[in-house]
Write a structure and sequence with these properties.
This protein is mostly helical. The chain contains eight helices and two strands, in the order H-H-H-H-E-H-H-H-H-E. The chain has a two-stranded antiparallel ribbon. Keywords: Membrane, Transmembrane, Transmembrane helix.
């Protein structure tokens, strides 16, 4: 069912959101059947890409991470994604009453998961060791995620489009703040000795 919705969001997102909003799932079910699998994609791809294929800015000089230093980063990234998705869902749940929506925390997590699916899938590009291509693919996924967010909020939350636009903008702002916080935490961790070991190939 999840894959059917996933492809439906690619081809006819508004109709698919209308179908998704009728489903009821527990937090455990969403995590075990959706998020736990999706969140594995970017860390695994980056682990393999950075240790086996290396990274390159223009396709000539390649840089590799040692497996010993990359594995803890991949594991940390995986759990950061799981926690981050829950926090995004909780913030959505916390804001919904302000905008006249009526959705449970479980439904907010389901909405956040489906909205973020393009970004999770774009993590596969981490296997390809060319930085400019990776950035292009991820930015395209971010753009489609934003589209799903703005298209889905009014339908999924059963609110008028004008309120849905403001609600979606608020969710997007929270997501950007979370991203900046994650980047700042990464810099701090690297500065105190958790930086990866880089090898030129």
């Amino acid at each position: 069912m999840y894959f059917q919705h996933m492809f439906g969001l690619l081809y006819h997102p508004k109709a698919e959101w209308d179908s998704i909003k009728k489903e009821q799932h527990s937090l455990t079910h969403i995590y075990l059947t959706h998020l736990a699998i999706l969140a594995l994609i970017p860390p695994f791809a980056l682990l393999v890409g950075t240790t086996q294929f290396g990274w390159s800015f223009i396709g000539k000089e390649f840089y590799y991470l040692t497996f010993e230093s990359a594995l803890p980063l991949a594991v940390g990234f995986y759990f950061a994604l799981l926690v981050g998705m829950y926090l995004m869902a909780y913030c959505t749940y916390w804001m919904e009453k302000t905008f006249g929506a009526d959705a449970s925390l479980e439904r907010c997590l389901l909405f956040t998961t489906y909205t973020s699916t393009p970004m999770f899938l774009s993590g596969l590009i981490g296997l390809v060791p060319i930085l400019w291509l990776d950035v292009f693919v991820v930015m395209a996924a971010v753009a489609y995620t934003v589209y799903l967010l703005y298209a889905g909020v009014p339908i999924f939350m059963n609110i008028p489009e004008e309120r849905g636009f403001i609600f979606a903008s608020s969710i997007l702002t929270v997501g950007l703040c979370a991203l900046v916080g994650l980047m700042a935490a990464t810099v701090v961790l690297w500065s105190i000795g958790f930086s990866p070991q880089i090898i030129m190939g």
